[in-house]
TrEMBL record:
It comes from candidate division WOR-3 bacterium. Coiled coil: none annotated. Pfam families: OMP_b-brl_3. Keywords: Cell outer membrane, Membrane, Receptor. Residues 88-490 form the Outer membrane protein beta-barrel domain. Gene3D superfamilies: TonB-dependent receptor, beta-barrel domain. It is found in: Cell outer membrane. One of its GO terms (cellular component) is cell outer membrane. This is TonB-dependent receptor. InterPro entries: Beta-barrel_TonB_sf (IPR036942), OMP_b-brl_3 (IPR041700). Its main location: membrane.
Amino acid sequence: DGRFWGARGGVDLQWTAQDRTSLSGRWGGRDMTSARFADFRTWFSPGADTSRYTSDETSYHRPGFLSLNFEQRRIFGEPAAGRNARPEHELTARLGWWRRYRDGETQTELLTIEGADTTITSGQRALTTGPADRLNLTLDYVLPLRETDKLEAGYQGRFEQAREGNRTFEYDTATGEYVFRERFSRDAEASQNINALYATYAGEWQALGYKGGLRGERAERIITAGDTAYEIPVRWDLFPTAHISYQLPADAQLMASYARRIGRTRHFYLDPFPVWQDAYTVVQGNPALLPEYIDSWELGTLLPFGASRLSAELFHRVSHNKVERIISLYPETTGVMLHTFENVGADRSLGLELMLDLTPVKWYTLTLGGDIYDYRVEGELEGRDFSYSSFNYSGRLGNEIRLPTNTRVQLNGRYHSPSVTSQGRREGALMTDLGVRQQFLNRQLNVTLQVRDLFGTGRHEDESGGEGYDFYSKSISTRQSPVATLNLSWNFNNFRPERRRRDDDIDLGPSDGDM
């Protein structure tokens, strides 16, 4: 249950035909209340008595945010005109500042069930507060060369700092009150600074298009928990990219590409302070965690026909320093599971992706997509080598209806198959979402209804441990469904953020991770 609110605004100042300044800002917040109910069955050896407990959790969060953005653009020479004009010779500087403040409370109680009697066995209450700041700096330069070629170069900087205070209270069964526990309370701080330079060159030669680039970056990070500072080693990285395309008759294309990317770890994954999620679960970060590096090779084709198109792509992706959530027995308390994060090794995916966009009539678009691939994960965990594989597949179905009454309806479905993990198996899941947007008053007033998990099929089911381990854990997570959200927005003076000028879709992105 929650309420969201916010406002945004901006102004463009066109000083001359070559100079433009843009200013924008956004402010908002939300009140969120959630509940989580867990049913536990525990035993310590096969055939032993099974104990049953339930965990009842309620959370209240009240985060707010503020963002300010500045952009200065300078065009050298006369501005280009027309869709097919050559790229403009320009220099653009951007500065963005963002702040989020979090204020929340979570209370978890473990209940023992004996017949019709229920007793509070233990309980934890956690109060969290703290701001997070981010500053983004970019400088982009574009130099046209010949008729269609261009050179792009620039600088990108991102500077983050987050502070969090955590106060923990424990339930006293003798008094029935929650008592402050200094041992499980702490203040934490995380900072991350990234400086990067990049350059790309793109051009065409007859039917051949090509683009290559290189990005170099320096990243540093510090995590402080209590009186201990964990300084992550400074990382210097290079990220090359290459893309070629060949134009075929009837606007068809052949394409091939390579890219190296990075998957950065979240601050939460690095925080070494143990956090009790419930009476049987402790979550603890790993400050020695390395970022993931992904090498991706792709070979594909695009076949347009009328207002529709078909694309097919062969891909091979390798992730190094694969990050996974790892489960083990918590050494300080019997029967408690420790969840942490480790670089388990590498995973590889080799397969085919297909996508079909059909527009049989102007007011309806059908999107069908899916992929099939061989998945392998291998590495070392807890001193043991492992290698697992599975045949994976996923599918996506999208329907969009555009009515003459300024109404848009989207119905989307997604499915992913079961897959192996470094410690076990993740089951498949199906999710269906519905979105309806109605525009009023010359499209100034927008009313959007979103319904997540329309048929209540969304769930997470994971298995870990078993043979070769000293534990077995099976987790099934569901939520009350469907989840409905109503959004109202009013645009003044035709204001629309630059990002949304190119994207009018209803926000029905993946939500299966929001349990």
